[in-house]
Amino acid sequence: MSHIPVLLNEVIKFLDPKPGNIILDATVDGGGHAIAIAKKILPDGKLIGIEQDNNILEKLSSKIENQYPELKNSNILINGNFRDIDKLLKPLNINALDGALYDLGMSSLQLEESKRGFTFLKDEPLLMTYKFPIEPGDLTAKEIINTWPEKEIADILFHYGEERYSRRIARNIVRRREKKPFQSTFELAALVKQSVPYRPFHRIHPATKTFQALRIAVNNELEAISESFEKAWQFLIPGSRLVIISFHSLEDRIAKNFLKSKKQKGEADIKTPKPITATEEEIYLNPRSRSAKLRAAVKLKII
Ligand SMILES: C[S@@+](CC[C@H](N)C(=O)[O-])C[C@H]1O[C@@H](n2cnc3c(N)ncnc32)[C@H](O)[C@@H]1O
């Protein structure tokens, strides 16, 4: 299955890219949004796409080369973490942006092809890093569950997964790892399943929240998001737009509070009093859009 960009029409509407604009796509991934944006900023605009996963970035680069040669000069792809945008934009001599897009979380490419353990539906090593290639010393899910204290694991599951059985799961993880450390997603998913009460009509797999929590912890996602929004805001010029798509309540809360704080300071006009969600039709065509929430704001001139 290929990646279908979420809320694409709405992204274009709220970002409103125009010829000549410089737009940041902080989570460029397979380029679903980026290519549509790049077409709007021709002939002399620039789309700066940041992505932590270099495997994906290389695929996007050849996709542009082969399928969209007309966009080649307007796309600048950078492998890095969006929390470092200031450092990443500096060598490009870019000091101002006309728009910035964040489409947070993991991509369907990572879920389906990365073999890094993002899903409990496949038996894969427990890495869960967006970053690829990883380097020695990079945190992985395996390190967390095989070495971190029980309380810290429980706290992660509770705070990042909103998992009500966090203590019980953490206790069982520690008991089990003393006999045999965890290696794979199936081992972890089986343990979580055994640790929570059986509910025949449960809508989601019992390991969903644990996997979400570990992924957030491994990638230090919430801090990276907060730090990056602040930095991106400094680059946005008056009249430019920030568009954020989130996929769970923790991300959405950060986006909402960030925009609210800018509004309170008179720096932002929020264009989405309520977050925009996908239509029934989009959800049918792309189930990943079910939990997407889009928030957008225009940066105001500070007088
Ligand atoms: C939901 S996907 C984006 C999909 C993209 N908008 C599209 O339509 O093709 C999110 C991407 O953001 C990347 N990502 C997540 N956190 C990141 C970070 N801190 N810095 C850079 N990339 C990040 C992930 O690796 C993933 O590929």
Automatic annotation (TrEMBL):
<feature type="binding site">
    <location>
        <position position="51"/>
    </location>
    <ligand>
        <name>S-adenosyl-L-methionine</name>
    </ligand>
</feature>
<dbReference type="GO" id="GO:0071424">
    <property type="term" value="F:rRNA (cytosine-N4-)-methyltransferase activity"/>
</dbReference>
<feature type="binding site">
    <location>
        <position position="82"/>
    </location>
    <ligand>
        <name>S-adenosyl-L-methionine</name>
    </ligand>
</feature>
<dbReference type="GO" id="GO:0005737">
    <property type="term" value="C:cytoplasm"/>
</dbReference>
<dbReference type="InterPro" id="IPR023397">
    <property type="entry name" value="SAM-dep_MeTrfase_MraW_recog"/>
</dbReference>
<keyword id="KW-0698">rRNA processing</keyword>
<protein>
    <recommendedName>
        <fullName>Ribosomal RNA small subunit methyltransferase H</fullName>
        <ecNumber>2.1.1.199</ecNumber>
    </recommendedName>
</protein>
<dbReference type="InterPro" id="IPR002903">
    <property type="entry name" value="RsmH"/>
</dbReference>
<keyword id="KW-0963">Cytoplasm</keyword>
<dbReference type="GO" id="GO:0070475">
    <property type="term" value="P:rRNA base methylation"/>
</dbReference>
<dbReference type="Pfam" id="PF01795">
    <property type="entry name" value="Methyltransf_5"/>
</dbReference>
<feature type="binding site">
    <location>
        <position position="110"/>
    </location>
    <ligand>
        <name>S-adenosyl-L-methionine</name>
    </ligand>
</feature>
<feature type="binding site">
    <location>
        <begin position="31"/>
        <end position="33"/>
    </location>
    <ligand>
        <name>S-adenosyl-L-methionine</name>
    </ligand>
</feature>
<keyword id="KW-0808">Transferase</keyword>
<feature type="binding site">
    <location>
        <position position="103"/>
    </location>
    <ligand>
        <name>S-adenosyl-L-methionine</name>
    </ligand>
</feature>
<keyword id="KW-0949">S-adenosyl-L-methionine</keyword>
<dbReference type="InterPro" id="IPR029063">
    <property type="entry name" value="SAM-dependent_MTases_sf"/>
</dbReference>
<comment type="function">
    <text>Specifically methylates the N4 position of cytidine in position 1402 (C1402) of 16S rRNA.</text>
</comment>
<comment type="similarity">
    <text>Belongs to the methyltransferase superfamily. RsmH family.</text>
</comment>
<keyword id="KW-0489">Methyltransferase</keyword>
